[in-house]
């Protein structure tokens, strides 16, 4: 007798690019996932995945089988969504995408409360810095730091405005304090989350509506904010990072803000498709994120405080999608 769980496990291994990652996503032991895939191959009488100690790859028949499996699972999700709409109750799987730094430093604080409030909803969070196509990647909701989109098939809802601020370790700042000015900033070692190999240019806003453009040749580039925060705390240079990422380190004194008069503003949006319809589970996630995803960086250059992520008044009506 066919077991659709085997199809789901196989698709999870392919999409996670490994048995260990798939097991973590499925919250199952790796041995269980491996055993189910082996059982599926035995029942089909073909090899779907070629395994080695370091990697795996799909066989030719495995590629075609995966395409069929993905279509089957998409149909099952669609059927579940139809039921959810008819029931009018938030239930089922919601897939969302988010930049890695935001997932680690912000979503981790917010999502547990969502699952407590909506126990029948399941979440799959894809933390990645690559550009996501909502339709091709089968994503319901994505968080993006963009001001506009050219895709007419999506809707945007602004979550918050934040700022990129300059930070360094107290030891680095104390030794360079008199020398660090906006006009000398580019001469200091810089730590960047932009992995582009070209020389980086940032448009900064300052006091009294002043603006300037600064170029850097970073000594360290990484899309992983944790690496950059630790490198800055170790005194390796100055980092320009989202305020929400470094707020805890500033609070405990591991990092301090450099040139507090200057920052680079960014706008974070929720992106979601319109052609599938907004089912209750997706709608409540969008509203929940809009309710909780509020962050404000302090614009007063004399203040060392940073705004905190906080919940809005739960009775306040969420803003309309824009």
Mean pLDDT: 80
How helical, in percent, are the residues? 25-40%
CATH topology of the largest domain, which one? D-Maltodextrin-Binding Protein, domain 2
Kindly, what is the distance between the CA atoms of the first and last residues, rounded to a whole number of angstroms? Answer: 48 Å
Q: Which stretches of 5+ consecutive residues score pLDDT under 50?
A: 295-322
SS strand fraction: 15-25%
Radius of gyration (CA) equals: 23 Å
The number of helical runs is: 9
Tag the structure with descriptive keywords.
single chain, 322 residues, alpha/beta, Arc Repressor Mutant, subunit A, 2 domains, two-stranded antiparallel sheet, 23% strand, disordered C terminus
Summarize the helices and strands and which ones pair or pack:
Blueprint: H1 4-16, H2 19-26, H3 30-44, E1 49-51, E2 56-58, H4 60-87, E3 92-98, H5 100-117, E4 121-127, E5 141-144, E6 154-168, H6 170-176, E7 190-192, E8 200-205, E9 211-216, E10 220-221, H7 225-233, E11 238-242, H8 243-251, E12 256-258, E13 264-273, H9 280-292
Parallel strand pairs: 3-4, 3-5, 7-10, 7-11
Antiparallel strand pairs: 1-2, 5-13, 6-11, 6-12, 6-13, 8-9
